[in-house]
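Module 6 notes. Inverse folding takes a fixed backbone as the condition and produces residue identities as the prediction. Think of it as a translation problem where the source language is geometry and the target language is the twenty amino acids. Below is one complete input and output pair. Work through it position by position during the lab.
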């Protein structure tokens, strides 16, 4: 196949590699450099978010993406408590922490620890719970005669500390009220 595989790389494997393809009509060369990367985990380029919001009863994923080579092992803590996989909490292979059915008790300081054979590092963020957004008045099915106007309502409750945006779609395509203002009109009730 013209393929070279190197397993269990060491620093001695670094260098310029050359592939030579030859047949009765001639010979051709191609070069590539193999760099061996090894570094302790660092969060300098991608720290954890300092504030993470999660909706009550919802699901949140807290990302932990340090730069490291080789890939680090991950662990998490909430305050001083070490976290392990359970029915509501899961540590993903990429280091992210998932919490489902979020409650007020889940609020607090979360720290991701990353460690490889070069060193270790950690990063911390605070999880805060917000009230879940709920549709309190959903649009109803409407029968309208051709040429008449139709009005559909949608009202939602949400956490007062957050903004709320309504997006309407038709058959899965978002309605652009700027471009289609002659056909659709958005009425905002305060």
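Target side of the pair, the amino acids:
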């Amino acid at each position: 196949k013209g393929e070279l595989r190197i397993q269990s790389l060491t620093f001695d494997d670094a260098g310029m590699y050359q592939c030579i393809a030859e047949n009765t009509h001639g010979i051709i060369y191609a070069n590539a450099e193999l760099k061996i990367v090894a570094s302790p985990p660092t969060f300098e380029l991608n720290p954890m978010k300092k504030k993470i919001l999660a909706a009550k009863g919802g699901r949140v994923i807290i990302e932990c993406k340090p730069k490291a080579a080789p890939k680090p092992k991950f662990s998490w803590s909430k305050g001083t408590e070490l976290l392990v996989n359970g029915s509501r909490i899961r540590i993903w292979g990429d280091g992210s922490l998932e919490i489902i059915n979020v409650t007020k008790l889940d609020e607090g300081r979360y720290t991701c620890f990353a460690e490889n054979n070069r060193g270790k590092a950690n990063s911390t963020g605070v999880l805060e719970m917000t009230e879940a957004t709920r549709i309190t008045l959903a649009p109803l099915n409407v029968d309208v005669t051709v040429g008449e106007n139709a009005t559909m309502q949608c009202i939602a409750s949400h956490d007062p500390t957050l903004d709320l945006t309504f997006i309407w779609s038709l058959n899965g395509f978002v309605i652009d009220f700027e471009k289609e203002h002659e056909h659709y009109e958005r009425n905002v009730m305060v």
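Reference fact for the lab report: The chain has a mean pLDDT of 92.
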